[in-house]
Specification:
Largest sheet: 6 strands, mixed
CATH superfamily: 2-enoyl-CoA Hydratase, Chain A, domain 1
Strand order of the largest sheet: 1-2-3-4-6-9
Number of strands: 9
Strand content: 15-25%
Number of helices: 8
Helix content: 40-55%
Shape: globular
Order of helices and strands: EEHEHHEEHEEHHHEHE
Radius of gyration: 15 Å
Distance between the termini: 29 Å
Oligomer: single chain
CATH class: Alpha Beta
Length: 185
């Protein structure tokens, strides 16, 4: 692995540490990052010594969701979004299939698909500065990566609908009260 890899995987003493590594872009999702994330999750799943997975983001944000700048710069935006969603769904499916506990460590933003990664985790610890948002309404997209299924189960149907239709954000203490995270550390 190099510092240019969009995802780092390190397995040590039964724990697979998977780190999103695009700090300059808020660890926002791209097709290569999503493919690499799926590969890292599969590698952890296939390693019989792995008893737990820690999912984290490098830098000051956990995951800002899809790379909106890349979406805006794409020549064929519809094809770009389709390819990104397909790749992201592949990574999300791998995460959902894991048979070991997943601990998610969140600092800064967990937005859009980043929130889905949080909601797929078994335990979530967040820094006091962490923020959680669906973000889709702000960019005119519908929720993906399982968010429309995961969010109502975490915070209830009415709140999830409100979060989906209107840009909403929760601080770490609010996310703890809502049941999105396990602890603020």
């Amino acid at each position: 692995m190099t510092t240019l890899d969009p995802v780092h995987l390190q397995i040590d003493d039964g724990v697979a540490q998977i780190t999103l590594n695009r700090p300059e872009a808020g660890n926002s999702l791209t097709v290569p990052l999503c493919h690499r994330l799926a590969v890292a999750i599969r590698a952890a799943a296939d390693d019989a010594t792995v008893r737990a997975v820690v999912l984290a983001g490098e830098g000051d944000r956990f995951c800002a969701g899809g790379d909106v700048r890349a979406m805006q710069a794409a020549t064929d935006r519809a094809a770009f979004v389709r390819d990104l969603v397909e790749a992201a769904h592949g990574a999300v499916r791998e995460l959902a299939r894991l048979e070991v506990p997943v601990l998610c460590a969140v600092q800064g933003a967990a937005a859009g698909a980043g929130l889905s990664l949080v909601l797929l985790s078994d335990l979530v610890v967040a820094s006091p500065e962490a923020r959680f948002t669906t973000a889709y309404a702000a960019i005119g997209l519908s929720p993906d990566c399982g968010l429309s299924w995961l969010l109502p189960r975490a915070i209830g149907t009415q709140r999830a609908l409100d979060w989906t239709l209107r840009p909403r954000a929760a601080s770490a203490p609010q996310a703890l009260d809502l049941g999105i995270i396990t602890a603020v550390v």
